[in-house]
DNA sequence: TTGAAAGCGGTACCAC
DNA sequence: GTGGTACCGCTTTCAA
């Protein structure tokens, strides 16, 4: 018993094509790459025919070795289950594909998988550039500079020395969201954010409140997940000083907050209003639909790959403005 | 003005390491790959030191060219925005990483991007294997056999000639879901499914009904998206013969159905109960939480990768049983 | 235990 | 317009 297609079936190479078409390997190259030398139409046809017959496809590894680049970008994301990163991945893929690049995306939510090792892994695979969607720490920065591969930070929240980055204006975004809640007349506005070092969004929340002469409502930090948001929501509901509105720093967590409120029998937005951050597609289909501060993911992704494709000397930080998407969870009712 | 790091900085190669360590290139190879020849401890140390100093990392393209494989798998998915495929991608990545493979995932929801061309694109990049998560058609099958790359079909619903595949038992799954609704006492059970050729789940829905002596409720086909589900939900709500329960063929669409019901002011599950299919993480956080027929994504992904890593001769179809996850949308109330 | 050298499959220069 | 050929960086056999 043998394999189904009995043929030993070595894949056809440039040399096979050349032999079949009766030309030199060089000419095959010229035809395939439409250059750098011109090829006579008749010869060209013969080569094309040979390629068709032999089912020839150029070996990407050989080409990469010779010309020194792979036409692949690496993408590092924290958690590919987060709808925001899902959306980011989508637009990144579309843009990269449009430029002829494929994406290797690695996420480091697995065990023993941190950002730095993900970066090194990608470097080994000779990607032409990397897009890192994570808060960078020192080891990460070291990994980036060591590997010597052009990298752009996305979803980064402030300038980082020596590495170009693009990210949303978190501070203004948070203020916009909170201000909308204030506009609705709320005076006790809570906050749900990630664990870890204090976030710019939290500052935005606090500053918006202060500017309006309000004091900060209760805040809860939780894991960056639906579950985390759920736990945080429960905490806020049980708070002695239960807020009448909550600003959540991500859609991902907001979904969990919504669930906590529903389970507690709290009417949204009448008893507690919610505004979140990100503007991912999932936010449109929660109940009630989330009013959310939207990041311009597509634009940011585009700039990120553009910066990889056509590197400029500048390594500055592009800060993108956010946009408030008004739906129902804030109390604005159905759109007209 | 020059680049920040003035060095021309050619990346160190095996030859540089050899020179620095005062050994031959071969020895560098032996050290790096721990074989196939042994290296004297002292020499080994010298080489390691040189590698460290020079920041040497082997060139993956050259290695791939030489040994003939890339340690990369290609993954083809229809829509990376669908939470089911998100989850699939996650587990696929974890399993593949565990086996030392990286993933290039392409999705063909973009313009001019069909399955066949995605497959060819991956073939060009010399992936060692492919996982295709799509209903395959003739052109797809042709693309697969032409490119001569080991492929396993995942999320496939029946055996396909000559290509190994793994998928859930859609028919039994659908019956399970519908039977649960029947158990709840419903007699008018509607269906929401994808556009296109009639689906096995639809048959499961119909057969379960028939077996219980019931007639099929209204059915609506819609785009495979949240929006599609929303539209289908609206249609069913407006139906002259409005069902008291709906079986939705995917969580993705069910989210939209839920929204349509909420907007129509219909109580879920009291006025209309809902059971869906897939069991993606998102389904746990809808309101009310979706009772759903869960696919064993992790197991299926694992088998798919395993079949690529250690190809067996068999090209059969592994059908996985599904599991009913009871939550609230069916009428079962809060868990104890 | 180490080294020399033959490729892997392309690219593109240089000569014709 | 075409062909010969020297590399790209690595793996591995074979000889020392």
From TrEMBL, chains A, B:
Tell me the superkingdom of the source: Bacteria
**Sorted alphabetically, which Gene3D superfamilies does this protein's record hold?**
3.40.50.2300, lambda repressor-like DNA-binding domains (1.10.260.40)
Q: Which SUPFAM superfamilies match?
A: lambda repressor-like DNA-binding domains, Periplasmic binding protein-like I
Single GO molecular function: transcription cis-regulatory region binding
Q: Which SMART domains match?
A: HTH_LACI
InterPro entries reported for this sequence: HTH_LacI, LacI/GalR-like_sensor, Lambda_DNA-bd_dom_sf, Peripla_BP_I
Annotated keywords? DNA-binding, Transcription, Transcription regulation
Residue ranges annotated for the HTH lacI-type domain, each copy included: 12-67
For this protein, the record's PANTHER family field holds: HTH-TYPE TRANSCRIPTIONAL REGULATOR GALS, LACI-RELATED TRANSCRIPTIONAL REPRESSOR
Protein name per UniProt: LacI family transcriptional regulator
């Amino acid at each position: 018993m043998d394999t189904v297609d009995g043929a030993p079936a070595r894949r056809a190479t440039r040399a096979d094509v050349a032999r079949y078409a009766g030309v030199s390997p060089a000419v095959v190259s010229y035809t395939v790459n439409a250059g750098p030398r011109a090829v006579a139409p008749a010869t060209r046809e013969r080569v094309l025919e040979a390629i068709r017959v032999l089912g020839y496809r150029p070996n990407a590894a050989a080409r990469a070795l010779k010309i020194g680049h792979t036409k692949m970008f690496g993408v590092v994301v924290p958690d590919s289950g987060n709808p925001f990163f899902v959306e980011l991945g989508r637009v990144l893929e579309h843009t990269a594909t449009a430029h002829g690049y494929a994406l290797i995306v690695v996420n480091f939510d697995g065990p023993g998988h941190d950002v730095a090792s993900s970066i090194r892994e990608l470097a080994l695979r000779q990607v032409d550039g990397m897009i890192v969607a994570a808060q960078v720490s020192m080891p990460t920065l070291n990994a980036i500079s060591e590997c010597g591969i052009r990298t752009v930070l996305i979803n980064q929240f402030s300038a980082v020395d020596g590495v170009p980055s693009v990210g949303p204006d978190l501070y203004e975004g948070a203020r916009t969201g909170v201000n909308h809640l204030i506009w609705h007349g709320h005076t006790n506005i809570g906050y749900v954010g990630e664990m870890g070092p204090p976030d710019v969004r939290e500052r935005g929340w606090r500053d918006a409140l202060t500017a309006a002469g309000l004091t900060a409502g209760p805040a809860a930090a939780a894991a960056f997940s639906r579950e985390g948001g759920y736990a945080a929501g429960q905490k806020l509901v049980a708070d002695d000083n239960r807020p009448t509105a909550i600003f959540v720093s991500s859609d991902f967590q907001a979904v969990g907050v919504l669930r906590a409120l529903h389970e507690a029998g709290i009417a949204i937005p009448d008893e507690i209003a919610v505004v979140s951050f990100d503007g991912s597609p999932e936010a449109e289909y929660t109940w009630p639909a989330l009013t959310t501060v939207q990041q311009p993911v597509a634009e940011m992704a585009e700039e990120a790959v553009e910066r990889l494709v056509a590197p400029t000397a500048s390594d500055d930080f592009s800060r993108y403005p956010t946009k408030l998407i008004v739906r129902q969870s804030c109390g604005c009712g159905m759109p007209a």
